[in-house]
Design brief:
The complex is a heterodimer of chains A (about 280) and B (about 325). Chain A has twelve helices and no strands. Chain A is mainly α and about 280 residues long. Chain A has a domain of about 190 residues: MetI-like fold (Orthogonal Bundle), CATH 1.10.3720. About 0% of the residues of chain A have low confidence. Chain B has about 325 residues and is α/β, with parallel strands linked by helices. Chain B has a seven-stranded mixed beta sheet, with helices on both faces. A four-stranded antiparallel beta sheet of chain B has the order 2-1-4-5, covered by helices on one side. Classes of the chains: A mainly alpha (about 280), B alpha/beta (about 325).
Chain lengths: ~280, ~325
């Protein structure tokens, strides 16, 4: 049996084990529902009469499955601001991440190129990046809301500001560490600066740049959920917050899983891109 | 000295690196003077640290000297240029480009307005010249060390430079591959009447390839101590060169220099055969009449086989059966 097959099998086994534990832990304990009369009264007052589906505590596996089926069977319906299909919510989140990430790339890659080529610029800008990099992206939110005055654009700004640093730093590092030999080849061939940038430095640094982009995308997807919880309106983060306010843990759990799967797919895309530009010696 | 007969003139070259303690910098090398005639193949030999690579980089325009001048075709060299082709020590191929891409990168630099088809045809000619036809679309990672170095040579030749600068191009290759590529280099240089300046550590390689061999004393304060004229006929080949008695006289002279004299010259100029002020003398140890610089015939056996270079005379070379 190949290693891949064996590890897949082990994964499936672990999944079954986790689901089993979860199932046992969330199984309805019949006693409490058919409790004493006084408790019945109380339960009725709380809208949880005996016989109603058990909705307190963690959802069972079957409830989760039902909820997932319901969401995935109609992902794109739109019944007003607080009731949209899960597909629409994810699309909103992806749109914000995509736009913020794109703007960050447009700024970070050329700037990283300049920093990587010029030790002077590197020295001059290094204190700024060192101070700005460790700031939690959400800390920018009040400033963004105050200056931009638009909650959606503020979300995009937060994605922009959190995506920019890994791309900037990796691009600068990749460009600065292009092998001297290759630059010397370009010099002896009297290659102009534009050709040198695009035909020597960019392909040489591309794997490092793509690594930075991959890290940025991972962070952006982490941050978007929190940002949307704050700004509200649309998006998968807002969906999580809304369902929490509805006390629908089932929907929250479903959204959490979905966030994980989308994050994984985004990472896969960048892993593929990274593979495309990586050269071997 | 007019510039007409020499393609390259080097005058009073020196390189000093600032010392960390603030004391005046001791030059790595100084008073380096030599010329290279058109179509001449010149090798430079010396121990590590004598500044050979720095000299080559100055000729290439990649580094600047602390003092002295380099004239190429009568014009001063003060930067890299397309009229000098450089083969780097570590081949320096771009790993993301194919063989064709690497050569085409050079050709497009030399002739930017050529059509794509013309560039490709030109590249293919030079890839074929180094015996790599069929490997055009391979990436360097798929090639052996010898094949990579051939691509480096094809790239340097493809821009049809006036002069070729080779920095120990075969240093990383095994003896068999080295021999084959040396033969190719001889053939290509003869066919194109190329002027070449080459660094090597390999005495046999220098005797096979070079018309003149510059011997450098040890650094710091290295200089060109002696210039050895190779008096072997120019049509020498790797397979027959060791049958000529001159070969051993030259070889012993070179090995003797590297083992003993290069150190003595550095320490205090104890060598009477060359004085620092008057510049390097030119000797022809291959000729018997030039007794002064000759090494006695009874050189100890351990000197004849002074180092691994003995391996580089492939008496039982597999190719000899075919020729």
């Amino acid at each position: 049996m190949s290693l891949g097959l064996r590890s897949t099998l082990l994964s499936l086994l672990l999944l079954a084990l986790l689901l089993g534990i979860y199932h046992v832990a969330t199984a309805p304990s019949g006693g409490s529902v058919a409790g004493g009369g006084a408790n019945d009264e109380y339960a009725k007052l709380m809208g949880k009469a005996a016989g109603a589906t058990k909705s307190d505590g963690m959802p069972t596996l079957s409830q989760m499955g039902e909820s997932a089926l319901k969401h995935l069977s109609a992902p794109f319906y739109d019944n007003g601001p607080n009731d949209k299909g899960i597909g629409i919510q994810v699309a909103h989140s992806l749109g914000r991440v995509g736009l913020g990430f794109f703007l960050a790339a447009v700024v970070a890659i050329p700037l990283g190129f300049l920093i990587g080529m010029s030790p002077l610029l590197h020295g001059a800008l290094n204190p700024f990046t060192q101070v700005l990099k460790p700031i939690t992206p959400l800390a920018w939110m009040p400033i963004a809301l105050y200056t931009i005055k638009d909650s959606s654009a503020s979300g995009i700004f937060v994605i922009f500001i959190c995506s920019i640093w890994p791309m900037l730093i990796n691009t600068a590092f990749g460009v600065a560490s292009v092998r001297r030999d290759w630059l010397n080849v370009a010099r002896t061939l009297e290659v102009g600066p534009v050709r040198r940038a695009f035909e020597v430095i960019l392909p040489a640094a591309a794997p490092t740049i793509l690594t930075g982009m991959r890290i940025s995308m991972g962070i952006a997807w982490l941050v978007i959920v929190a940002a949307e919880m704050l700004v509200g309106g649309t998006g998968i983060g807002y969906f999580v917050w809304n369902e929490w306010n509805n006390l629908s843990i089932t929907n929250v759990m479903f959204a959490i899983l979905l966030i994980g799967v989308v994050g994984m797919l985004l990472d896969l895309v960048f892993a593929r891109l990274q593979h495309l530009v990586t050269w071997r010696e | 000295m007019s510039g007409a007969e020499y393609i390259l003139q080097v005058q009073g070259l020196a390189k000093r690196y600032p010392s960390s303690s603030g004391s005046p910098a001791v030059p790595v090398f100084e008073n380096v003077d030599f010329t290279i005639a058109r179509g001449e193949f010149v090798c430079i030999i010396g121990h590590s640290g004598c500044g050979k690579t720095t000299i080559l980089n100055v000729l290439a325009g990649l580094e600047s000297a602390s003092s002295g001048f380099v004239f190429m075709d009568g014009r001063e060299v003060n930067g890299p240029g397309l009229e000098r082709g450089v083969v780097f020590q570590g081949h320096a191929l771009m790993p993301w480009m194919t063989v064709l891409g690497n050569v085409a990168f050079a050709v497009r630099s030399r002739w930017p307005d050529w059509s794509k088809a013309k560039v490709e045809a030109h590249c293919r000619r030079f890839i074929e010249l180094v015996g790599l036809a069929g490997a055009e679309h391979k990436k360097p990672a798929e090639l052996s060390g010898g094949m990579k170095q051939r691509v480096g040579i094809a790239r340097a030749f493809s821009i049809e430079p006036k002069m070729l600068l080779l920095d120990e191009p075969f240093g990383a290759l095994d003896a068999l591959t080295r021999g084959v590529i040396q033969d190719e280099l001889v053939r290509i240089c003869a066919a194109t009447n190329q002027s070449v300046f080459m660094i090597t550590h390999d005495v046999d390689e220098a005797i096979l390839l070079a018309d003149r061999i510059l011997l450098m004393s040890n650094g710091p304060r290295a200089r060109i101590a002696e210039i050895v004229r190779n008096t072997l006929p120019r049509d020498r080949t790797r397979l027959t060169i060791h049958h000529d008695p001159q070969f051993y006289r030259i070889r012993n002279h070179l090995v003797d220099f590297l083992v003993h004299r290069s150190k003595l010259i550095q320490q205090g100029g104890a060598d009477p055969s060359s004085a620092a002020a008057s510049g390097p003398i030119e000797v022809s140890p291959g000729l018997l009449s030039d007794g002064a610089a000759d090494v006695p015939a009874d050189v100890p056996a351990d000197l004849r086989m002074a180092d691994d270079i003995a391996l580089d005379v492939p008496i039982h070379h597999p190719l000899s059966a075919n020729s």
